[in-house]
Amino acid sequence: MKTSFIYLRGLRHADHTVFCVQEGQKTYYESQFSKYVPYSSGQQVKRSLLDSSLEILGEQQAPITFNKVIKANGGMGEGEPWSPCDPLYTDQLLSGWMRAQVGEIPVKRRSPLSISAMRALHPLLTNVTKENLTFDRSANPDIHPVKVRNDKGEVMTEEEVEAFLKDKKISLTRRNFIQENARAEGLFIYDIAIDLRTLFSVSLNKYEREINEEVEKKLRDKGWIETKNAFGSCLVCPKEHRDKIIPALAHGIINWRITSNQSRTFSLMETLAIAISDNANKIAAAIRAKLSEDTEKQKAIPLIDESAGAEIFIAPPCEGYIQGMHGTVNALEDAQNHLIKILNDYNYESSTDY
């Protein structure tokens, strides 16, 4: 595959879980099919992907400085968070940065990874359910105290509480009701585009800077190579460092997991299939859904089209959700190795592809 871009689509199944929170599972309204559809932001997918890659590398995230501002009225405001804007940190290299500090020239580098939200393969193939939960300790009342405060905020005595309960003819429970907890389930996809031209390079453009002079000197001292790509002069990450990052990046892209928000509702969110191509249209055709014409009520059917022209890797769990599919136990490892090969084959030092 000779290309400057890699496109990847992943298909996953989520079961009764929460993977992005906004008053419960985050949703948007799909107007054509008149229903709420669960989704997870691209930023959360990106964070999960980077965390998975850093775990393989044994690295920590780049240190971010959070700036706070004391206002004239005594309150505290939010300043701009500062990243180090240093591609020697792997997560900075892969995710990009922006910093506009007073007294300094602004620096900005766009991420070479464009990552979509994790959203429905088709609106009719996902669902959001709501349930009421109970935080209940009524089975052991002697070890769980209850404090009752009056309208002045004062803690009432036991005698006052007993008199109040007797007067109102109510009981004092040791349980709280948690209402309207939304859970998501169904088939979801995420898309990733990788710009190989900028994946391991930083521009030396002096007019729209990606790095300052201090970082540039540090990179040169670390063996970064000056060359040219489609955007002009740049510094390229040395091969020995790329050889460490590429397997970790491929692992993160294939195996990332959203584990936040799932303490009570964990789902494996198992990967069913992966499609990889140098053509975005081919991955869209390879993993898709279509509307059935055999039923009066609208119904969507998930499809994996092996004739679409993309490289497709089908995992065994896919057989339970898409008819006619036959998965292989090494499918995800094969997808990861295929991705590693494409990343390794690209000529980062002398590419001028547009």
Helix-strand layout with pairing:
Elements: E1 5-17, E2 27-30, E3 35-38, H1 42-57, E4 68-70, E5 76-78, H2 90-95, E6 97-99, E7 107-109, E8 113-115, E9 119-120, E10 126-136, H3 158-168, E11 175-195, H4 196-199, E12 201-203, H5 213-221, E13 225-229, E14 232-236, H6 239-255, E15 271-277, H7 280-286, E16 287-291, E17 300-304, E18 311-314, H8 331-345
SSE series: EEEHEEHEEEEEHEHEHEEHEHEEEH
Strand coverage percent: 25-35%
Shape: flat
Structural class: alpha+beta
Report the count of strand segments.
Answer: 18
Rounded to an integer in angstroms, the radius of gyration calculated over CA atoms is: 26 Å
Main sheet record: 7 strands, antiparallel
Overall mean pLDDT: 90
N- to C-terminal distance: 16 Å
Keywords:
alpha+beta; 354 residues; 3-stranded antiparallel β-sheet; 24% helix; 7-stranded antiparallel β-sheet; flat; 8 helices
Structure description:
The protein has helices at 42-57, 90-95, 158-168, 196-199, 213-221, 239-255, 280-286, 331-345, and strands at residues 5-17, 27-30, 35-38, 68-70, 76-78, 97-99, 107-109, 113-115, 119-120, 126-136, 175-195, 201-203, 225-229, 232-236, 271-277, 287-291, 300-304, 311-314. With 354 residues, the chain is α+β, with helices and mostly antiparallel strands. The strands form 6 sheets. Strands 1, 8, 9, 10, 11, 15 and 18 form a 7-stranded antiparallel beta sheet that branches. Helix 1 (42-57) crosses helix 6 (239-255). The longest helix has 17 residues, at 239-255. It is flat, with a radius of gyration of 26 Å.
